[in-house]
Amino acid sequence: MSALQIKKGSNKHSAYNLRPNFSDVSEKHTLAVLVDNEAGVLARVIGLFSGRGYNIDSLTVAEVDHAGHRSRITIVTTGTPQVIEQIKAQLGRIVPVHEVHDLTVEGASVERELALLKVEGEGDKRVEALRLADIFRANVVDSTLTSFVFEITGTPGKIDAFADLMRPLGLTEVARTGVAALSRGL
Amino acid sequence: MTRQMTGAKMVVQALRDQGVDVVFGYPGGAVLPIYDEIFQQNDIKHVLVRHEQGAVHAAEGYARSTGKVGVALVTSGPGATNAVTGLTDALMDSIPIVVLSGQVPTFMIGNDAFQEADTVGITRPCTKHNWLVKETENLSATLHEAFHVASTGRPGPVLVDLPKDVQFASASYTPKREVTVSHYQPQIKGDMEEITELVAAIEKAKRPVFYTGGGVINSGKAACQLLRELVDATGFPITSTLMGLGAYPASGENWLGMLGMHGLYEANMAMHDCDLMINIGARFDDRITGLVSAFSPKSIKAHIDIDPSSINKVIKADIPIVGDVGHVLEDILKVWKARGRKTDKASVAKWQAQVSDWRKVDCLAFKQDGKVIKPQYALERLEALTKDMDRYVCTEVGQHQMWAAQFLGFEDPNRWMTSGGLGTMGYGIPASIGAQMAHPDSLVINVAGEASWLMNMQEMGTAMQFRLPVKQFILNNERLGMVRQWQELLHGERYSHSWSESLPDFVKLAEAFGCKGIRCDNPDDLDEAIKEMLAYDGPVIFDCLVEKHENCFPMIPSGAAHNKMLMGEASTKGAIKAGGAVMV
Ligand SMILES: Cc1ncc(C[n+]2csc(CCOP(=O)(O)OP(=O)(O)O)c2C)c(N)n1
Ligand SMILES: [Mg+2]
């Protein structure tokens, strides 16, 4: 406490800094950014990240309100708390950005990703792949006598785990959508 | 009421609707329809520059000296790419300008057409926002939105790219008042709880300092007035960044002078030792903070800024207030008065005494002896002979810029135009043209270095054509002085390419442009020469030959703390460690 009776770094009323003190430890945050779906808006968001040296772990975008031409961009990013605060403030500055939500700090949220995985193989490996797919609730969306394409949805961690298991069984290609996320409850 | 008209006509109509009276521009194939419309009207004056960079800086000079939005018009391709430096400059310094660029017709975009450039792509990172208008129906609304975005919130440059077919096609014009309200409406009022917390801190502070920046000037004249009221009522010392000079008068009792890398000793010491720092519209730029970890270690920091991203970007704010400076200051004053106008008078008096002691160090002292003009002396005389005039000052970038900030006093906002954030050599001449266009009867001086001045000297042609009596006061040290200073202090006196060879004869150059040239190399003749410059009714190029090896002090080397200022030649020996040389 200083002579002024203000705890340094308290910030208790600020909407821009919800936590008392910035640490140097990197955190993963999922941001939902609502934007006007106009030409160049994605370039603005991506340019912000590359221009200021922020990380993008995953990014998805699609128009979610066709009448209002509003798109939702879901960005998973990693940074120290100070960097995360900056990212949010910088996103908020982009003119066609309407809302920025940090799903990681604004309460519980659900995150899902969809992936397609091609597994090639014969005999036992093929059977094992099918068995594991069943456990992971992955669907077969294409098959030949020597290959499957599995469709799986889940958290990025679940998809990672499934891909790790498929690798020795003949995994040849993976396509992932990146994370889509929503806050839980009302 | 809506009216059918061509896109080109809409451009002129929208400018009229926005109260624009002057446009700085340069024509080319992709903007010919707009130039045709400009030809057929008299409301908007067009100033033909000599290079598009000049157009943008002139628009900046106009904007900074008036508080209004500046406008530039350029053609596609090279016209637009030439505008990039000016846009970046305006972005860094938060200057509201609208740049209109021509573009190849929509059906040719993407074909590498003649003079096609991806203008919105190139300018996306150097504008606050930009638009490519693909339909004439959207043109007028987009132009009004452009003015709104440029001037609302933290001001900045915007660009509207106008394909030629969009200029030719007709649609109905939407007047300004009928445009639907933009969702872009930044927060203006500060949070009352934070404001009250700041007032409580003001009441208790023992060693307070106001640290103000360009945001106060951007907020407007009323904000500057409120700042003066608050500073004078509390008696707290006040310093300012390069960008904020004039918000509080230099003759004011509590004025510390500029702070930062070449700021005054008393200002930097007050920043370092204060217990309450009230940042109003400044952004903790690295030229201000020096070594961040050693920045003002004992203070509570309040930060008032309209841009939330400025807060906690560099320095953590203990009392963050997002809002417009004018509105926040009004609320601070209201709350502070309502709570009984309290300050810790005894402690503040002691602090003021400390500040007076620092002032006695006389950090700007220099000795004018001998027959060579010291640059500081030249500015001291310029100040003495012009300070009571209706004066606007622009600068280029380098030592002369820092000396100008140190030795010239500004009593009012919007009187000082300099490239702060980007440090753009070549800014000064076009900026002086923009300022003179806005204030035809005032004295407009560009304090220049000879190297910077050459970067946009073609604009003297513009000054001549439009009878703009700008005074180009060149402190000619035949050196890239600031670069030379860094090489002396940081690179073992190896002066790699930091002198100006083959300089033109500036007096003959003036004659070639048809204006007046004056050369002065003797301190005894200086006053007369300056008076001659001031008396001349037209542009003047003043070649002031100054000491070639003078260094600008005080100086906080990059990456050093505020209280580690270099005060003069004697203090520089071995003062900068190798690590400091890495910083810019
Ligand atoms: C466009 C641009 N290029 C390079 C620089 C780097 N730079 C900063 S100051 C300076 C020297 C300026 O020389 P001059 O205009 O003569 O001013 P002086 O420092 O001698 O007063 C240079 C090259 C810059 N700021 N801007
Ligand atoms: Mg020079």
Question: How does this model look, in words?
Answer:
The complex is a heterodimer of chains A (186) and B (584). Chain A has 186 residues and is an alpha+beta fold. Chain A is 25% helix and 38% strand. In chain A, strands 5, 6, 7, 8 and 9 form a five-stranded antiparallel sheet that branches. Chain A has a four-stranded antiparallel sheet with strand order 2-3-1-4, covered by helices on one side. In chain A, a hairpin with a 2-residue loop joins strand 6 (139-144) and strand 7 (147-154). Chain A is elongated and about 55 Å long. The two termini of chain A are 39 Å apart. Residues 1-20 of chain A have low confidence and may be disordered. Chain B has 584 residues and is of the alpha/beta class. Chain B contains 24 helices and 20 strands. Chain B has a six-stranded parallel sheet with strand order 3-2-4-5-7-6, sandwiched between helices. In chain B, strands 11-10-9-12-13-14 form a six-stranded parallel sheet, sandwiched between helices. Chain B has a six-stranded parallel sheet with strand order 16-15-17-18-20-19, sandwiched between helices. In chain B, helix 2 (32-39) links the parallel strand 2 (22-25) and strand 3 (45-48). In chain B, helix 16 (375-386) crosses helix 23 (526-535). The longest helix of chain B is centred in the middle third of the chain and has 16 residues, at 345-360. The mean pLDDT of chain B is 96. The complex binds thiamine diphosphate and magnesium ion. Thiamine diphosphate (TPP) binds next to helix 17, helix 19 and helix 21 of chain B.
